[in-house]
Automatic annotation (TrEMBL):
Name of the gene: inhiba
Protein's name according to its UniProt entry: Inhibin beta A
């Protein structure tokens, strides 16, 4: 059984809080599915037949954030074709802490 599509594109967006300085006319732009406050910072086409780790280069985005005096970054990961191909995204973070919690119980 061959899948019809073997490549999907994974996109990483940096979410930004929009400044609330525009008081007139800006309400019309809010129905753009929230994309107005997001910047595409990385994208990668990957093969769904291979289960592997993918690293997304975000150094310049992090540096820009630090240059602005900020210390946290909200991101959104999108994969429009993942559902139709049966692929799923797995994100890892703070795994070590979870292992310590399990050992402590």
């Amino acid at each position: 059984a061959n899948r019809t599509r073997t490549k999907v594109t994974i996109r990483l967006y940096q979410q930004q809080k929009l400044p609330k300085r525009n008081l007139q006319g800006m309400e019309e732009d809010t129905n753009l599915k929230g994309e107005k406050g997001e910047i595409l910072i990385s994208e990668k086409a990957v093969d769904t037949r291979k289960s592997t780790w993918h690293i997304f280069p975000v150094s310049s985005s992090v540096q820009r954030l630090l240059d602005q005096g900020k210390n946290s970054m909200d991101v959104r990961i999108a994969c429009d074709q993942c559902q139709e191909t049966g692929a799923s995204l797995v994100l890892l973070g703070k795994r070590k802490k979870k292992e310590e919690d399990v050992e402590g119980k």
